[in-house]
Amino acid sequence: PQLVRLADYRPSDFLIDTVDLDVNLDPHATRVTARLKVRPNPEGRENAALALDGDELKLVSVAIDGAELEADAIEVSPERLSIANPPRGPFELTIVTKIDPTANTRLMGLYRSNASYTTQCEAEGFRRITYFLDRPDVLAVYTTRIEGPTDETPLLLSNGNLMETGPAGRGRSYAVWHDPHPKPSYLFALVAGDLAKVSDTFVTLSGRTVAVEVFVEHGKEDRAPYALDAIKRSMRWDEEVFGREYDLDVFMVVAVSHFNMGAMENKGLNVFNDKYVLASPETATDGDYANIEAIIAHEYFHNWTGNRITCRDWFQLCLKEGLTVFRDQEFTSDTRSRPVKRIQDVRALRAAQFAEDSGPLAHPVRPQAYAEINNFYTPTVYEKGAEVIRMLKVLIGPEAFKAGMDLYFDRHDGQACTIEQFIACFAEVSGRDLGQFMLWYHQAGTPEVTIRTAYDAAAKTFTVTAAQRVPATPGQPTKQPAVVPMVTGLVGPDGADMPLVIAGAPAGPVFALTEAETTLVFEQVPVRPAASLFRNFSAPVKLSTDLTDDDLLFLAKSDSDPFNRWQAGQTVALRNLVARVDAQRAGAPAPEEPRLAEAVARAFDPSETDHAFAAQVAALPSEGDVAREIGEDVDPDAIHAARAALKLDLARRLAGPLAAAFERLVDEGPYSPDAASASRRALKISALDYLAAGGAPDGVARAKALYDGATNMTDRIMALQVLSLSASDARDAALADFHDRYKSDPLLIDKWFLIQASAPLPDTLDRVRALMTTPAFDIRNPNRVRSLVGAFGSGNPTQFNRADGLGYAFVAEVARELNGTNPQVAARLLGAFKTWRALEPVRRGKAEAALRAVAAAPGLSPDVGDIVRRALG
Ligand code: B3K
Ligand code: ZN
């Protein structure tokens, strides 16, 4: 396969200053006329040919300055339009193409679903609309005229501000949009259809009134207000925290039902998967509300980090994505609970990014080469990319960080930039050499930090020795030590932080580990402290320490850092789970850790008022967490059994307090999605989950009662989730009831799919296969595929990893089926295999066989081919 390499970057030979698009909509024969003002790039090669990108395009005609080009002046294929001798000065290039939006099942470029038209252009979808210099460093001002049948597409939207609209004759209408901000083609968007508008206004910091509009299917208007409000809150927050104001007259969000991902930040016209817009108490869970808020914020924040300042090339993807994730995390932290948000983000980082980083798909935050860019929209680029920025802030401090951001916005507004340009802003304002810091962008793999501690009672010193090692990853056999900020506290027996003194002077709390081994000798330490290391998860590393369970249980109670209070309990639980897995595989009795019950009991104590934090404390490490801790020769069944046994053990020890908590936390009054109410429900469900552990009849009865009496979707789905973990009549009855109630709502059927696909039960695979044949399933709709097949592959460790290999074969089979129609979704499904090499030999063999079968299939798309090739490494 052809690799694109960062090292081969060179500026475009031509620039495009303006784009005048005329899109004449037709279900099968949409005609696109692009009038481009082109000029040679002074930084490009002289006398170069003009080579435009295409993808499955049909050229109708091409003209320069009004004169149509003869066939011998051009070279044309569906993938390329090349003009050997274009004028050496500015010229106007007019290209007419014809496309079939109905046949576009890849959902890239312009596609039609449910009678409306939508575009998706990132990363390389604009070339499926017209031949273009489809690269992010070519910035143009777009004017777009759309014309379509008035009955089918009364609504015609594109980027920027609406200039004109009216009838176009023969039952058709048109609209003209103009976006004054130069942008790369990946931010172009067009939407046409018959949708309802829910709108509001926002007055910016400088007093401009902006229209804020959310478009949804008719009849779903009552599910739009939460997203609308989230937009306004995001706008305000970006003004207050980053000093960034919105820059057009209108900001639009359109909810669509067929979408390959979560959402897309097209300039002024964000397109969203309807799953991340639509919410009402009866249809959305607390988790849905939180996701909507975060994704609305994320896409809105892209307006500055991504759109105003964009990426020079796709290797710089983390420049916009890591930074924008960092910004949305901060928004949520300010809006909800900061410590709980941090815990949730770290859980997600470990589950997705650490897993990726430890397997064959590991790659640097800024990759060096790719075969298919769509496969690099990964947790590494996004979530680790955000961690890198968070570390930068810890290392240089919040004031310098803010000054660096301001400088970045100031200096690079309107440009297509690199990571080096971004980092240079922070180096400049802080006066720091960030050379070593750049390794976070270059080196793949999760650094492993090992801590040894020693207390010298006579000398009153406490020594912390930190060794770091970055493991080898594909293509990177050897690594250098990174700069790892370790935020540290020494907690005394009274629970208070001791002053940190090194070499006679106050020190810390941020210690930058820059060598393979770093030793810190803390002085004037009157008694042996418990070391609280990497507070607030100050670096994305895998930590192992010589702290005892006693130390950890003490920190779980007393650490002033909430993250480490949570982490300490998790570490004790994880140690116990690993010991249980070992014992089980050795046929030995399960090792118990009764003190864990004390820690969990605190979460359910009436005196605990931070319910969201308590719910995090109560939640055991996931099966994936245990698998990663074990690292190799992983047996998912043993892990599941060990975790179920620990849960049951805790449930038995805490039966009284759990039941009391469940009753105390029952909702009163009408549903509200606010953080405090959601937290209460989260803790309530956590209690219920324990109460029903092992299928305990009393717990199952409570879950059934909660399900039957639910007045909101959170209670209903959570009760169903609890019921679905074990085979029972109550489970089957509730599943049947849920289907009957919500069968007309695809987003709710997705929840129903997901719950069944994630159940750790031996008949799950058969059930998933059967569900795929029902009318509710539609392989052309990515949400359906993700809820059923994606959830099975990535959310069901025991059944995907069935010892007979049928789980692997199933996911591989669906990926092959989708390979031709929607390669992006197909490639995503195969992400389920990202840790296959860590499995025990039998499963490893079966997983490999399934991957090899895909690799050997004819006609693999670049997306699927790239993933299987790398997965097989
Ligand atoms: N930038 C888009 C993702 C595009 C994915 C293209 N395969 C959404 C986001 O990150 O905000
Ligand atoms: Zn993004």
Structural description of this entry:
This protein has 873 residues and is of the alpha+beta class. It folds into 4 domains: 4-278, Sandwich (Immunoglobulin-like); 310-442, Neutral Protease Domain 2 (Neutral Protease, domain 2, Orthogonal Bundle), CATH 1.10.390.10; 448-539, Sandwich (Immunoglobulin-like); 743-873, Peptidase M1, alanyl aminopeptidase, C-terminal domain (Zincin-like fold), CATH 1.25.50.10. The strands form 10 sheets. Strands 6-5-9-3-2-12-15-14 form an 8-stranded mixed sheet, with no helix packed on it. The protein has a 5-stranded mixed sheet with strand order 17-18-19-21-20, with helices on one face. The protein starts with a strand and ends with a helix. Zinc ion binds at residues 298, 302, 321, 324.
Poorly predicted runs of 5 or more residues: none
CATH architecture of the largest domain: Sandwich
E-strand count: 34
Q: What's the rounded overall pLDDT mean?
A: 98
Number of helices: 27
Please describe the biggest sheet, giving its number of strands, its sense, and whether it closes into a barrel.
Answer: 8 strands, mixed
CATH class of the largest domain: Mainly Beta
Order of strands in the sheet with the most strands? 6-5-9-3-2-12-15-14
Distance between the termini: 14 Å
Radius of gyration: 28 Å
Query: Which structural class is indicated by helix and strand composition?
Result: alpha+beta
Number of separate domains: 4
Fraction in beta strands: 15-25%
The CATH superfamily of the largest domain appears as: tricorn interacting facor f3 domain
CATH topology of the largest domain: Immunoglobulin-like
Gross morphology is globular
Present as ligands are: (3S)-3,7-diaminoheptanoic acid, zinc ion
Summarize the amount of helix as a percent range: 40-55%
